[in-house]
Amino acid sequence: METKTALAGDRGEGGGRFRDRSEPAADPWSSVGDPARTLSDTTIDELRRAFDGALLRPGDDGYEDARRVWNGMVDRRPALIARCVGAADVVAALRTARDEGLEVSVRGGGHSIVGHAVTQGGVMIDLSLMRGVHVDPIRRRAWVQGGTLLRDVDRECALAGLVTTGGGVSHTGVGGLTLGGGYGYLARLYGLACDNLAAVEVVTASGELLRASPNENPDLFWAVRGGGGNFGVVTGFDFRLHPLPAGVLSVDLAFGVDDGLRALRGLVEVAAEAPEELVGSATIFTARPGGAMPEEQIGRPVVLVSYTYAGDPDAGRIHARRLRAAGTPLVEFDDVYSYRDLQRLGDESQRPGMRRYWKSHYVSAMTDGFLEAFLLRGTADPGAGNPGCSGSLFQLGGAIGRVGPDETAFSGRDAAFDFLSSADWEDAAEDAERLAAGRRYARAIEPYSTGRAYANGLEAETSPSVASAYGEATYRRLVAVKDRYDPDNVFHLNQNIAPSRTQATP
Length: 506
Prior knowledge:
Blueprint: H1 41-48, E1 54-56, H2 63-67, E2 80-83, H3 87-99, E3 104-107, E4 123-126, E5 133-136, E6 141-145, H4 150-159, E7 162-163, H5 174-180, H6 187-190, E8 197-203, E9 209-212, H7 218-224, E10 233-240, E11 242-243, E12 248-256, H8 260-272, E13 278-286, E14 301-309, H9 313-317, H10 320-324, E15 331-337, H11 339-343, E16 355-363, H12 368-376, E17 390-395, E18 417-425, H13 431-445, H14 463-470, H15 472-485
Parallel strand pairs: 2-4, 3-4
Antiparallel strand pairs: 1-2, 5-6, 6-10, 7-11, 8-9, 8-10, 12-14, 12-15, 13-14, 13-17, 16-18, 17-18
Helix pairs in contact: 8-12, 14-15
């Protein structure tokens, strides 16, 4: 049997299931800082005396690699990259940046779609050397450093037969994923990544090292669970752990676009009755050479309806019957993976260096109108589709919805699915076309959305777009936390919650 990874060649336009995910007035990938700004040797020498990691300036060995991030569209040059090995390094680098009046960016895994990890002409606080994971199997807890990748957590937890919710690409950073909410194959069963936090360690804008938990700085603890990197540099995460599934069933059925609406209706029916072990998803993409699609399907739209089941495989396979009722699949995959292997299936298709775009919307009412708009990809011709981008759906609910909407800053508790318009490509000459296609598709879906969006899927950095993504009440509360911990908006390279004194009054 062909394996599921054979689909990677077909789903070239960002068709993977997960994305570490508002639309700006201008493209946010452009360089907006001061590329000519430099730091004096004296300043660097003073910092070095308080710094145990590596300090890289333009021209130094390793600088070019260290400034590169996941999205190949991002091409910025920090005046200094401070590769930290602990919280003390973070404090020292932050103080130097503030003393010198330089912009600050924070890098974990570097997966931000608009490259928030990299400042132009400022100081990048790089956590990528901070990848320690300590697992306590008795208490079922893991202490995770701020630069850790999902693969690091999965590997160490698996030794103890434990797991916590992560995304679906193993080279994603734990920090960015968790601070925005963080969903993956186990989210309906065990909750979001942020729901599994017991505490965090944060370096605030003033350089103070704080612990935030339900009993310590609870306002900060509320905000970092869904509010992104607005409130400080999170140098450590304390996660609750759960039993590791023995295996995860993964089922994919691919249909031609003529059967697409029936296939999507089947997925909606399965999702409506699904146990929490099941996570449904769907993708529409244009088939490319080198994948699993029949030759006659190359260049034509394909609708992929899928689910994973973290339980007994035979019990999970029952749900495929309703999906097969849509018609005869072009291809079908039925595989059982270890959780760690499942987490790595998207690694190659989501490899660093590709030029990328995405934008998401939360959707609750899975009407035929929405499903038809999903199939059209922002065009009027389902047969031609939109080869410049793809669309995907990921099921929410379950344990995610059991957390109260006021308990964390995450704004998608009532959504049935997260929708994503996405594209990836290699040639810079295609940038305008690809971005326009992705945005056109996202605009077509917006009327069917809840009006809110996943923080990790926000393209914009402007307060009005961010405010609408969270909703008015949550946004006001986030602003109050920002006012307390970062009133000068030092941490603004993110889906920015601007402090109240910087926001325009009506």
